[in-house]
Amino acid sequence: MLLWSGQLATNVGAQASGIIYPILILALTSSPVQASWATALRMVPYLLLSLPVGALIDRWDRRRVMLVCHAARLVAVVSVPLAMAMGVLTIAHIYLVAIVEGALHVFFNIAETAALPRVVAPRQLPQATAQNQAGFAAAAIVGPAVGSALYQAVGRGFPFVVDAASHLLGAVAVWKLRTSFAPSRERQPRPLRAEVAEGMRWLWQQRVVRDMALVTSVLNGINAALPLLLIVLAQERGASAAQIGLVFSLGGVGAIVGALLGGVIARQLSFGHAILLSVGVRALCIPLLLLCPGPWTLGAVYALASLFGPLYDVVQFSYRIALIPDTLQGRVNSSFRLFAFLLNPVGAAACGWLLEHGGSGWTTAFFGALCVLLALAVRWDPAIRHAVHPHTRVHEVGA
User: Fold this and answer.
1) CA–CA dist 250, 15 (Å, integer)
2) What share of the chain is helix, strand, coil (3-state, %, to 5)?
3) Is residue 130 over pLDDT 50?
4) What is the end-to-end Cα distance of the chain in Å, rounded?
5) What is the CB neighbour count within 10 angstroms for residue 34?
6) Could you tell me the fold of the domain covering 2-181+191-398?
7) Per the confidence metrics, is the pTM higher than 0.70?
8) Over pLDDT 90: what percentage of the chain?
9) Best label site of 43, 152, 179, 281, fewest CB within 10 Å?
């Protein structure tokens, strides 16, 4: 609960400021391309750092890594309102903060994922994952509404102050943890390259984990495009900053309902059916965005698209985390995330380029078609279709 509550506070802050980055850049430049680069640059460090960071996390105390990341992210985020107050904020400064935050997120995210099996029993991993997803969804409701309201009513820098305060709360929660998060080592550390290769090799030999990494990569690329697309669609329909926050908050409502139902639905469906349902609903919802006349309907469609996102995460994450040996948690999860986030900057940058050169209609059609193709690939993948959760297999063998 400490690990979860600290992450909940941090996610609220991240959502509060995250929605403001593209809105702020659009206000300063009127360029969707420049706005998309803030999102893309935040994701690039995962592509460059995830593999070596995964190997290092398997060597280092994961609690200490999380504490350092919280402190450093606080400093990075608070520099934005300080620069605003002094009248020296530039687009380059915003881009730099995005890169620093992205790099620190790599360390924190892999450390926190590797720490989860230390505080949760294997049989409780699906439930814990669902609870995490509910927390993410709750933050997605509260954060955008708070951030956009502060931006419009109080000042452009206040959402970043909230984000900085959330990192302080997150650090306190991690500091209070008393479980040992030092990695268990079966042998002396080998060269970093050999340890990275071991994690990558393990992932590649597990067909379901490998295929899910590729599916998640394409899905995340599409998801990375949606925030800017929704902002532009809402602005074209005359929405204010507060109303844009409403769109994202409604998406958060859908996600929290999905998180509450995710564990129940996951027990009723096979692995393959759960993954296909999540991807298929998103493929149906993206074209519907073009038919929405205002922010309420945009938010409703986004809520429906978000409803089955937690189901996807609960199913694939609990499957993977239960399968990975403790000594490989950091390396395998970082390898998975390398594939999973590979297309995030591409999706974000492509969305900005398409919006500026083709308009919102062609951009929506492109990402909708891509999601349909992904759903078809999931439907015809035999490894995903016949996968069984490791905990279920252990239970059946024991029975």
Assistant:
1) 13
2) 85, 0, 15
3) yes
4) 32
5) 18
6) Growth Hormone; Chain: A; (1.20.1250)
7) no
8) 12
9) 179
